[in-house]
Write a structure and sequence with these properties.
CATH superfamily of the largest domain: CDP-glycerol glycerophosphotransferase, C-terminal domain
Structural class: alpha/beta
Number of strands: 12
Number of helices: 15
Largest sheet: 7 strands, parallel
Oligomer: single chain
Order of helices and strands: HEHEHEHEEEHEHEHEHEHEHEHHHHH
CATH topology of the largest domain: Rossmann fold
């Protein structure tokens, strides 16, 4: 009852409070990250004399202070001042559809989302009530996608008119095309956090392990096996020796819920570092600020590989619990073997063999990658933010 009254009040206020035609509200989960952060930085860097006024709403108080100290207009997301900025904003850019249920017809809401889906979500899920507001047919509602296939998929997942889904590419992917900048960011992050005794540039290859987060019955906390990759016949010393002998740096990016579980395990390894969400946030980074420095990606069902395909670099898949995961969560695309264009490893010896192959030959599985990349990424360049800006502010600006 209280939530209903609160919703009515917010909608009523938003209906009558006048809008600043140049104000843009940014919102993301986690705070100050992903497509919202990338597009915000594009506006700041490419329109310095613009009358546009970008503001952020932030949940984390420590980050809020850090952003404010950096000269970024940021407000407490759950405060009256935060809601007032929402009421005053003509444009809302969000990665998780926040404010959709409250937007007025005088506001433009752009759903940036946080990646193109591989797994079922929203109205495509059968197992539960979708946690997405059913106002996706509103005027002035825009969803971005990376291809015509993804346009149709997102239309279904969000139960939105397909004409509201636009193929622009994702702003966050613009950053991964600059290896030099990505290496600078990674070096700064590792030096700032004192994660290595060795210089990042001294490594021959940088490998990122970025699995999806598992949460289903029997694994409520989402944790994996103690060997991290959950591979049969895993041998810790052989892994350590391989990294040392091949001069490979392993970066690990897990879901925040899993970071504490694995932090000590990873800390004991000489050539492996855990990139935590707090580390990134403390340095005003997100994963896409360093992804361009990665030479090889290791994943399972995380759709990060859709983005990594843009770099035409090797990807190793470790679908060790494919049947269980498919039953628990489900996939939008089938068969998995086609949509995951890279070698598959279920056992530790096979994993080392495939990793060696990828280190020696960056064109390994290149044809398979190109086929999937052309399907999921219409634009394979660093101009997604520019296309989105032109779409919102030059083509369909109300």
């Amino acid at each position: 009852m209280i939530e209903t009254l609160k919703s009515v009040l917010v909608n009523l206020l938003n209906k009558f409070i006048p809008k600043n035609q140049n104000q843009i509200l940014f919102d993301s989960l986690p705070d100050f990250s992903d497509n919202a952060k990338a597009f915000y930085e594009y506006i700041q860097n490419n329109n310095p004399q613009s009358s546009l006024r970008p503001v952020w709403v932030i949940s984390d108080q420590q980050l809020l202070e850090k952003l404010s100290d950096s000269g970024i207009s940021a407000y407490d997301k759950h405060s009256f001042s935060g809601f007032y900025q929402f009421f005053r904003s003509k444009y809302i850019f969000t990665t998780n559809n926040t404010f959709l249920e409250f937007k007025s017809s005088r506001q433009v809401l752009v759903n940036l989302w946080h990646g193109m889906p591989l797994k079922t979500m929203g109205y495509a899920e059968d197992s539960k009530e979708p946690q997405i507001p059913h106002r996706s047919h509103d005027d002035n509602y825009i969803i971005i996608s990376t291809s015509n296939l993804m346009k149709n998929v997102l239309s279904s997942c969000f139960h939105a008119d397909a004409r509201k889904v636009h193929v622009t590419g994702q702003p966050r992917n613009d950053r991964i095309f600059s290896k030099k900048k990505s290496m600078e960011n990674l070096t700064r992050l590792i030096n700032q956090e004192k994660l290595l005794d060795k210089d990042v540039l001294d490594y021959q290859k940088i490998v990122l392990f970025a699995p999806t987060w598992r949460k289903w019955e029997g694994k409520v906390d989402g944790t994996l096996n103690h060997d991290l990759m959950n591979l049969d016949d895993y041998h810790d010393q052989k892994f350590t020796d391989f990294a040392h002998e091949n001069n490979v740096l392993f970066l690990v990016k897990l879901h925040p819920f899993e970071e504490a579980y694995y932090s000590q395990i990873i800390a004991d390894k000489e050539d492996m570092v855990l990139i935590t969400s707090k580390m990134l946030q403390d340095n005003l980074f997100d994963l896409y600020d360093i992804l361009g420095a990665v030479d090889i990606l290791i994943t399972d069902y995380s759709s990060i590989y859709f983005d990594f395909l843009l770099l035409d670099k090797p990807i190793i898949f470790i679908p060790t619990d494919l049947k269980e995961y498919e039953k628990a969560r489900g996939f939008l695309f089938d068969p998995y073997d086609f949509w995951a264009p890279g070698p598959k490893a279920l056992k530790f010896p096979d994993f080392l063999s495939e990793l060696s192959h990828c280190i020696e030959d960056e064109n390994y599985y290149q044809n398979e990658r190109k086929i999937v990349n052309d399907i999921v990424n219409k634009y394979q360049d660093s101009n997604s933010s520019e296309r989105l800006f032109n779409l919102v502010f030059n083509q369909i600006r109300p």
